[in-house]
Amino acid sequence: MNDDRKWLPSMTALTSFEAAVRHGGFSRAGEAIGLTQSAVSRQIAQLEDWLETPLFDRVGRRVRLNEAGRIYADDLLPALDRIRRATARMTMRRSPGALRIATLPSFGMRWLAPRLPHLSALHPQLVVDFAARSQPFDFAQEEFDAAIHFGTPDEWPGAAMDFLFREEAVPVCAPGWLAAHPLRQPADLLTAPLLSQSSRRDAWARWFASAGVEAGTLPPGPAFEHFLMLAQAAAAGAGVALIPSFLIRPELDAGTLVIPFARPLSSERAYYLARPLDAPVHPALSQFGDWIVDQARMA
């Protein structure tokens, strides 16, 4: 046996061990990977012989991961996950026009989705899968080619950023709510129920400051993870929400949401297309990147 192979146990043994760790026993591990309980037990016994170290403590018919097993699992399981992700990426690359893009949920629904027919007409060979993600992630650990990011360029280590556009957030409420709660000046909103997006709880404090209103410490109000949930709550009369205007254009046009004060909130944060910094040039991603930047310029 050469020096390389002696450090590589059989993949069946490794996956049996992984399944036993994840599922807490040999029986459920066998169900997960399509082996019998005895087959899993034999594979793990072979692995222990290979390592010359017990990985599980046997107590009657029960097994329990021991300290050596925990140490081995901490190193092994992430490595197996990386193998799976690398294989998935290679499988996806069999189609040169395939892309997987992570997008902020509300951005994807309200800005990106309506523009996709234009992308398909311009590049019919592209096959783009979209998935919702709200936070930055490690491209090396995920199966995405790019992502939509809102913030500043330095908030995503290891990513190159293509600027798309900045947003303007406006206060909005239901017309019926406004009729029942007349507002004459921005300070009147201090006594209104203020609805927030959960990752931007400081937005109202910044809005009051930009309007020249001494707000002090604002009481916490209802918060929603996605802007479209926030818009629905405001349209239902739950209070006043601060929402980027481009995300609620249909509601503003239909009159289900109105703007009580035309005082938009701007910031240095913006939308970007984030790409892995050290990734090889991918023609399909270059086409998508050029398209989305052009769309942002025309918006």
Automatic annotation (TrEMBL):
GO molecular function: DNA-binding transcription factor activity; sequence-specific DNA binding
Gene Ontology biological process terms in this record: DNA-templated transcription
Keyword check for DNA-binding: yes
Keywords from the UniProt entry: DNA-binding, Transcription, Transcription regulation
Classification via InterPro entries: LysR-type_TF_proteobact-type, LysR_HTH_N, LysR_subst-bd, WH-like_DNA-bd_sf, WH_DNA-bd_sf
Domain HTH lysR-type, first and last residues per copy: 9-66
Cited PANTHER family: GLYCINE CLEAVAGE SYSTEM TRANSCRIPTIONAL ACTIVATOR (PTHR30537:SF26), HTH-TYPE TRANSCRIPTIONAL REGULATOR (PTHR30537)
Family membership noted in the UniProt record: Belongs to the LysR transcriptional regulatory family.
Protein known as: HTH lysR-type domain-containing protein
Source species: Sphingobium xenophagum
Phylogenetic lineage: Bacteria, Pseudomonadati, Pseudomonadota, Alphaproteobacteria, Sphingomonadales
